[in-house]
Structures
1.
Amino acid sequence: MKLLSSKNVNPLLPYNFLVCATLYSLGMNYNYLQWSRARYARGLNLEEAYSRGHKKHLLNVQYRMHPSISSFPNREFYDNKVLDAPNVKQRTYEKRFLQGNMYGSYSFINVTNGIEDLDSKHSTKNMVEVAVVAEIVSNLFKDSVASKQKVRVGCISPYKAQVFALQEKLGKTYDIDGNSDFSVSVRSIDGFQGGEEDLIIISTVRCNRRGSVGFLSNCQRTNVVLTRARHGLWILGNGATLMNSGTVWEKLVLDAKARGCFYNANDDNNLAQAVVGALVELNQLDTLLKIDSPLFSDMRWKVRFGDDFVRSMTTMKNINTCKEVFSLLIKLSSGWREHDHQMDNVLDMNGTCSQLLDVYNVNGFLNLIWSVDIVREYSKYTQVLKVWDVLSLTEIPKLAKRVDTIFVDYEVEKINRCKCKKLKGAQEDKKKK
Ligand SMILES: *[C@@H]1O[C@H](CO)[C@@H](O)[C@H](O)[C@H]1NC(C)=O
Ligand SMILES: *[C@@H]1O[C@H](CO)[C@@H](O)[C@H](O)[C@H]1NC(C)=O
């Protein structure tokens, strides 16, 4: 679909430029235009200007977006006919807002564990994406304070319910009207028409197997939303849903993959923690606890939950403790280990247990009991992180005895493999630091 038809506004071009170019093509004198540009810029309805039947060989130059941001909309909506102005191609136009490849000028961030939630007015929201946006904004804020850099962030979602949820979450913490060094504005696509920000975070919300994306598929809106950012554009969405949508969003995901701008939210520990927090709050423990929990699928260590652990978690009353447990698990599954971890003074265990089990404190009172285990998958043996239970110290010996009866059946070879990988993980972690 081409958006250069006369009916459509061209949201890519700066307002003044557009008015100017439009009138130029209507055959007006250029000097006159320079002079009256400001006046026109205020009053003229672009849609109207376009529909007056003028020709469309506009000289299309865009001055707003870093080239990595303009690349996709340019190809998709403008036949690659829009040129990047020299100013956006300068090195200084590329700004770093956060450390990590995921936070470059342009990226798609795959948030897979979201949950679509229809509100009473039939608008959709996704609290997991809200949590991810909030986490990113919180990190931006910390960075902005530390570096004393002015940052203006815009959060956009096509769905009113999501905009509202984001405003509720962010409005309490940050300046929303934009007067301080760090400001966040949260708006719908329509609310952003004509606007721009240094950094834009888009929450696409939809997350379902059908690939149903509703009015997200509207090309003109998509064009608007993708062309608001100056230095950074981070698009959050469920990669699979968008890929199945058969819309321009499918192309967007493919394009991001092809350009190496596609990232999984769970690859960033902070974002993974935010996802878990949201899922716990949404009472989605089942999702978190199922075998091959999607949360841990991309992690360095696969995680397997023991029945006792699942039981303890599902009966856990305190939401914060629950979050802390998963938080610790995410760290463990990404390879983090406590240094100089001393088991001996934590508890007095005999048998194989003492060699294999590890006890990590969760919150002072509770402890996570885990070990490395070997599972058979597709006729291959793989090391996994087995989580036995979460218990107070006094309850641990009982578990240890039970687990020992399981370890008794392990051959020496298998036990050695468990120990071996455990050490390797710890070493790898040290190297990283
Ligand atoms: C998004 O991430 C999930 C799990 O992390 C993965 O299974 C899925 O393939 C990813 N989506 C795409 C489009 O790559
Ligand atoms: C471990 O073994 C010692 C001596 O063999 C015994 O005194 C102690 O009670 C055992 N501890 C546990 C937790 O079974």
2.
Amino acid sequence: MLVNVKEMMQKARDGKYAVGQFNINNLEWTKAILLTAEEQKSPVILGVSEGAGKYMCGFKTVADMVSAMIGDLGITVPVALHLDHGSYEGAKKAMDSGFSSIMFDGSHYDIDENIAKTKEIIDLCAERGLSVEAEVGAIGGEEDGVIGGGEVADPAECKTIADLGVDILAAGIGNIHGKYPANWAGLRFDVLEEINKATVGMPLVLHGGTGIPDDMVKKAISLGVCKINVNTECQLVFAEATRKYIEAGKDLEGKGFDPRKLLAPGFEAIKEKVKEKMELFGSVGKA
Ligand SMILES: [Zn+2]
């Protein structure tokens, strides 16, 4: 059964660890992440962007697949199905399709419109028992065609949005989606500290987890980050493992062309990466 993120986030906040949000793209991705979470006894959040939702035929297909998989695989750890960077319309669609948690990204609106729309989404989610993530200060880089400027959030605006009743809050602190450039200045811990103080007890979210050095990740967790989004890193290891399989000519040996064989190295690579992240975030054994 899917759960919202409220309880897992409060436990993470109290226990000073973070739960990984791993974005899914297909059945193999979902299965790899769920099995790893079960093996590691870790709570887990499956992230679905609007683009990935469309790719997988629609939110209903995704929600039904994930729910069925939890049953068929005998998954017992808490699993949340979370809309990643949802638009206003997308958020409504995902809540009607069976998602257990919604991110409404109103960071590209001015703050008044972000507040008004976030409030509406909070009310709709409250009626359904879903959790809500809001965003202040656009996260840099590209997320499914949406280019963010890499803003640094204003702690006062973070408090205003947090006080609306969101369950988790994403704030830009110099983090970006995708690969980080060589000249990246690092996370703004001074700002994170101010946001953490201003929003007292609010579980914070770190987007763009790919390529942030481990010591920075740990420091961010110590400053209130309870959810870390991992997307690009799984894509990179899946592509690398698949490329190696084909470059080694394995698809030409015997029945190596069978998709169950062809996709296996990428599947294993995702499992390994997810395990590594759960260990880093401290969520192993917390389910
Ligand atoms: Zn993001």
